[in-house]
Amino acid sequence: INATHGGTIFGDIQRDRGVGPHHPKRSDTDSISHGVTLAPDTRLAQLIRAPDPVNSFHVQAVAQLGADLVLTLQSDDGLIEGFESKDGRLVGVQFHPEKLPGTTWDALFTDLVEKANG
User: Fold this and answer.
1) Taking the complete model, does pTM exceed 0.85, yes or no?
2) pLDDT tens digits, residue range 54-102?
């Protein structure tokens, strides 16, 4: 999504940003999770009032957001974990909410179904 809007990525966040692993294969653990900060006054903030921690399974990440995209979610180490279009119709995240059932992230799926039903 970000590339389509002219944004860039970090090819390897550990190398390019000097952050710890965001993928279990690069750590001694079976899973990685971390806290995130939610940007106020965004569509995501309307859906998720107090975000639960997110899981992490990525080596690459958004470096610079593309045109018409707004930062909505940032990891504790400063990586972009979520963004949306300025009109709030498009919401993108850099984690796997489908693997976090029963958390605040269920609201992403509710919103998607509501949008699909028009």
Assistant:
1) no
2) 987 667 889 999 999 999 999 988 889 999 999 988 999 989 999 999 9
Task: Name the β-bridge partners of 25.
Answer: none
β-bridge pairing 69-75 and 36-38:
antiparallel
Structure tokens at 85: 């279009």
Tell me which residue of 47, 68, 40, 52 sits closest to 114, measured CA to CA: 47
Q: What distance lies between CA 112 and its chain's CA centroid?
A: 15
Tokens read off for 42: 């965004």
Structural element, H or E, at residue 111: helix 106-116
Count CB-CB contacts under 10 A for residue 106.
Answer: 16
Q: What length is written for the chain?
A: 118
d(CA 72, CA 108): 13
In this predicted model, what pLDDT tens digit does every residue of 23-66 receive, in sequence order? Answer: 556 566 666 677 999 999 999 999 998 999 998 766 788 999 99
